[in-house]
Amino acid sequence: MNYKSPLLGSLLAALLLTSCEDHRIPAVETIQVTPFASGLAGPIGLEKDAAGNIWVAEAGSGQNDGKITMLTPDGKAHPVITGFDSEIIMGGELNGLNHILFADGVLYILGAHSRLYKANVASFKPGDAPLLAKDLPVEDMKQFILDYKFAQDTEDTHLYNMTLGPNGDLYLTDAGANAIIRRTKAGVWSVFAVIPGIKNPTPVGPPTVESVPTGIVFDGQKFLVSTLLGFPFPTGSALIYQMDQAGAVSVYQGGFTSLVDINLTTDPGVLVVQHGVFGAQGFAPNTGQIRRVASNGSSVAVDNLNLPTDLIQADAHTYYVSGLTGTVMKVKY
Description:
Oligomer: single chain
Strand order of the largest sheet: 3-4-5-6-12
CATH architecture: 6 Propeller
Strand content: over 45%
Distance between the termini: 45 Å
Helix content: under 10%
Number of strands: 32
Shape: globular
CATH class: Mainly Beta
Number of domains: 1
């Protein structure tokens, strides 16, 4: 049985139907959170370019309408690539685009069914006709991962997020298989590490709760991986794991709730995104947070966010955070 439940599956597959990168946000500063863009269809992943534009992976509405959108600094949305798979699957979940990453001069895109797309968008300008997803090079890794003999096999795969690691290789979180997948620069795929579950701290659900990997970063020495626990989504029990370059996994810090993203900072520590607190009706509105993680624990940097999904830094004092309500908010201090 898959104890991630339809609600968790919706988040990881793209969008709950019931319903950032690099500099520290100082606790002593006044933080302003203002609307930047709205009307987006299930924004999951954010990325930035050198010109100050924010790129968004929109999961869509289930009508094969997933797309990559560029948000110019004035907040206007410009479709760049359209026609990605976006479908309603078993349990009423929506399966579509996930996260994106600029690397090697191309845009890497994680799509439905554990597909990795590559797009050359260097020449795109607002107003240009969008590219079509069907014309992009794609690596379909679903069967490779499903065929792998995991010790605790979920019989599922869902490539969700990615980062660059040593030698320019891609390291990807698989929120279905609960594993970290490696793709070398030469295009060779392998299973790098498995993320262990935790003992269920509640009387409800299975004895072991899946530690679903979401965000991943590489700090030059080790990887850090954020997790969103499976059913019953216990509060305060999610972990940040660390991995060495050989794939050995250990706990970095605990005490978190439903983490969906992790970001490096210039000071010691990281920023993480809490999607929300799970209650009787699913993830409660306005319980999302950006949390600052240091060696002595974590603290709230931004509170009362509504189902946030990703965080990206634009400059030394500006971040953008996406939410499943179809918005991107600007966080400035």
